Every structure is written in C-alpha cells, then in structure tokens.
Amino acid sequence: MATKKAKKKAAKKTPKKKAAKSAKKKTAKKKTSSRVKPKVRAKKKSAKPKTRSKSKAKKTSSAGKPKILKVNQYAVKAGPEAFLPPAAASMGIVLPNPGEAHIEGRIVPEEEAFEFAARKLLEAKVPTIFPGPLVLWKWNDKAAKKATAIRALANAVPARLIPMADYRPKYPKIDPEVEINPNHPNLTIWHNKIDACIFVGVHCHQANLALKIIRGGTNCFTIAMCAQAGHEDACLSFRDATPGKIIALADAVEKLKQSGVQNQGNKFTQFKMDRTGRID
C-alpha cells in the first residue's frame, strides 16, 4: 500500500515540476526576446537616415538640371593689378593660332589686333618701343631687317625707343631714361610715365617675366610682338613676328592717321647712344 501511495504522490508532483520548467522556459524566452528587440529597433533607427538621404537625393534629382557655375573670363588688362599678379596661363588664357592674335586674352584675327594696337599707340601719352637683344645686334640679316622695320614703326607713331640691351639685373644703378631691364622694368616705366609699350626682339622667358611685373605694378598697356607663339601675359600679343608684320602695324598707324585719328603723345627728342653711353 505504501508503494502505491508513493507512486501516486510522484505522479502528482511530476506535472507540477514540468509546468514549472515550462514556465521558466517561457520567461527565459521573453527575456531573450526583450533583449533582442532593442537591437532590432536600433537597426531600424540607424537605417532611417539612409532612407531620408535617399529621399533628399531624389528631391534634388527631380528638381531639374544641375546648377552650372558661371565664371567670368580673366582679362589681361593694364594694371596695377596686384603685388603678385597671377600668371595669365594659370587663369585660362591661351595663345593664338597662326594668323591670330589676342587682345586682353580674347583671340581675334590679326587684322583686328593691328588696328587695336595702332589706336592704343596713338592714344598714349608716352608710347615706347623696347627692342631687345634679338634686334639690337646684327647677328644675322633677319635681325637687321627687323630693326629697320622697328625704326619705321617708331617714326610712324612717333614713339620713343628705349633698348633692352641685356638681361643682367642693374638695380639700383639702372639709368631709366635710356634702358629697361626685365628684372625691374617698372622702374623705367614709372620714371618715363610710359602708358603704352611694345616688346620686340626679347627672348620669351625674359619677356614673360617683365610683362608680368609691368601688369602687376604699372598702368602701362603692353604689346608683345613675339617671333614664336606669343605671350599670354601681354595685354595684346602677336605671334610669328616678321619684318612684314611690324610694317603692317606701321601701316595700320598711318591708316588711322589718314582717317582723322590724331596722335595724343607728348613731344620728345629721341636720345642717341654708342658703346660708351649716351651721346646727346
């Protein structure tokens, strides 16, 4: 009898134990599920900004075409521009093709540039030509022909002739009345109050240096007659300069004079020099 009662008690106790175990399992599941749920919610929260950014992207794309920034083209004008003016090439100025020239960075036909340069020379108070070593010294017949053409141009304007005999820095001993140096050309321009000038027969690297300094610190309008591809740092530049092109500029000056344009330059007497220096 005792064994039967014990079996009954055991049979009664086992369902309770099983129920307790199942209850514990349920609570454990609830706890684990409650722990997992915040992680899922966190993911959803972190995913929301992505969906918002996508919607913003859609709005911007649906707004229409992308905005195009309008940038004004840089113009190579007479200064004074700045203590350190930018190189014109770095500002997008390009050199002209054969048969073309550039006026303040704008590519134009040579005929237009001849007339524009001639008008600038006639309107200037102190128009001056700076012949460099390539035309000062008779190192070949072509140089001699260019020198003759430059003299004809100077007589047509009329314009002063101030030579750039060499490129050695001469500061502060330079005589600005009779010479110009590419390392400090502003001294000659300031002293003589030159407001329009022509570079001709100057090596390209020295001309670029001088033209940039002039644009930075003076109000002189610079014209470059280059035997190569031209000079982007000049206010006006011709390329492939030959004696014929120099004469063409002189003819443009004479044509404007005949049409009624008067020379506004101050009267002057051209100085003369020899190997010893100034002789008048």
Q: How many DSSP helices? A: 7
Summarize the helix and strand pattern as letters.
HEEHEHHEHEHEEHEE
How far apart are the termini?
155 Å
Which strand order do you get reading across the main beta sheet? 2-1-7-6-5-3-4
Question: Which strand-content bin applies to the residues?
Answer: 5-15%
The chain-level mean pLDDT equals 82
Could you tell me the radius of gyration in angstroms?
42 Å
- What is the strand tally? 9
Q: Give the overall silhouette.
A: globular
Largest sheet: number of strands, sense, barrel closure: 7 strands, mixed
Question: What class, by secondary structure content?
Answer: alpha/beta
Helix content: 40-55%
- Unreliable residue runs: 51-62
Tell me what the structure shows:
The chain is α/β, with parallel strands linked by helices and 280 residues long. Helix content is 48%, strand content 11%. A 7-stranded mixed sheet has the order 2-1-7-6-5-3-4, sandwiched between helices. The protein has a two-stranded antiparallel ribbon with strand order 8-9. The chain is globular, with a radius of gyration of 42 Å. The N and C termini lie far apart (155 Å). About 4% of the residues have low confidence.
